[in-house]
Design brief:
The protein is mainly α and about 300 residues long. It has one domain. About 80% of the residues lie in helices and about 0% in strands. It has twelve helices and no strands. Helix 2 packs antiparallel against helix 3, helix 2 crosses helix 10 and helix 3 runs antiparallel to helix 5. It is globular. The two termini are about 30 Å apart.
Length: about 300
């Protein structure tokens, strides 16, 4: 069986035009945009800054003086620091779980809208609740595994650099630890990033098609699809990365050619999702068309295709 990563590109582009422009329905566009907004809700960008002034005097004559000052400050306010730290951690975890929960709901809502060529919120929100909650559980598991891996990398590199850390110097051990940390951090980020994308690109459609929970869908994916086709999935994600680069270039060119007017909808969260909906639908269709090459049972976009032809 020949698996192509280029053939689904044309299919996904045609499907995107069919879903969004043939005919153009602004109500469906905004509804699908809301689903895409939920599906990518975790993608926040922001920053903070200050004027460099505070109630503390941060000018020190030496590193030893600064270290002594920080040590005494921690001893004096350790209860407050610990309380605030735990409050921030707990609040961050709860907010992260809420966002992940909404994202999982949004992924099935967007998938349903693309498969059936429709804009709907209430029905898929309730209909795929159990599947979305199962996907959320596995996203949490993957997140915990990724965090544990990061902690192990930090401990490993910390042990390598400890002789230099203990002597407050930056020499061979610290340099080696920094290089190893960078390499392992990049590799682990790629590994867990691919797993996260696989949950969305392939596991969620399997769950949707068979009505099964995430754990069982993972087994189906491993046994019926991934086995003996690992190289095809490596090529798929390389191609998806290149397509992502092309998408970013297109967005940048659009902003430049519009004299930055197009930047306005890009900085408003929900309007951002509506504005970039063609890209969201394209990438959703791309993974679906890639998946259907493995077996006709995974042809989820059949309904939309036949509806466009007038056969359904």
């Amino acid at each position: 069986m020949e698996i192509s990563v280029t053939k689904p590109i044309g299919q996904a582009y045609s499907a995107m035009k069919r879903i969004l422009f043939k005919p153009f329905n602004i109500g469906k566009w905004f509804t699908l945009g809301f689903c895409a907004f939920l599906a990518d809700l975790l993608e926040f960008h922001g920053g903070s800054g200050g004027d460099g002034r505070s109630g503390f005097n941060w000018r020190f004559s030496s590193f030893e003086e600064a270290k002594y000052y920080a040590y005494n400050l921690i001893l004096e306010y350790w209860e407050l620091i610990l309380t605030i730290g735990w409050a921030i951690i707990v609040a961050g975890m709860l907010l992260g779980l809420l966002i992940m929960w909404l994202r999982c709901r949004g992924k099935f809502m967007l998938l349903d809208g693309v498969v059936h060529n429709r804009g709907a919120v209430v029905k898929p929100w309730h209909q795929y609740r159990e599947l979305a909650n199962s996907l959320l559980l596995w996203r949490i598991i993957v997140g915990i595994m990724g965090f544990a891996c990061f902690v192990l990398i930090v401990l490993l590199c910390g042990s390598i650099a400890w002789p230099d850390i203990k002597d407050l110097r930056f020499e061979a051990n610290a340099l080696a630890a920094l290089i190893i940390f960078g390499a392992l951090a990049i590799l682990s980020s790629i590994f867990f990033g691919v797993i996260k994308h696989m949950l969305t690109d392939f596991i969620a459609p399997i769950m949707y098609r068979r009505g099964i929970l995430c754990g069982e869908a993972i087994q189906v994916f491993r046994q019926e699809i991934l086995a003996d086709h690992e190289g095809s999935f490596v090529l798929f994600y390389l191609m998806k990365f290149l397509l992502g680069v092309v998408a970013v270039v297109i967005v940048i060119l659009t902003v430049c050619m519009s004299c930055c007017i197009a930047l306005i909808p890009l900085i408003i969260p929900y309007i951002n999702a509506v504005f970039l909906l063609p890209l969201a639908v394209f990438f959703r269709c791309y993974s679906l068309y890639f998946l259907e090459q493995f077996d006709p049972q995974w042809r989820l976009l059949y309904f939309a295709e036949e509806t466009a032809k007038g056969n359904l």
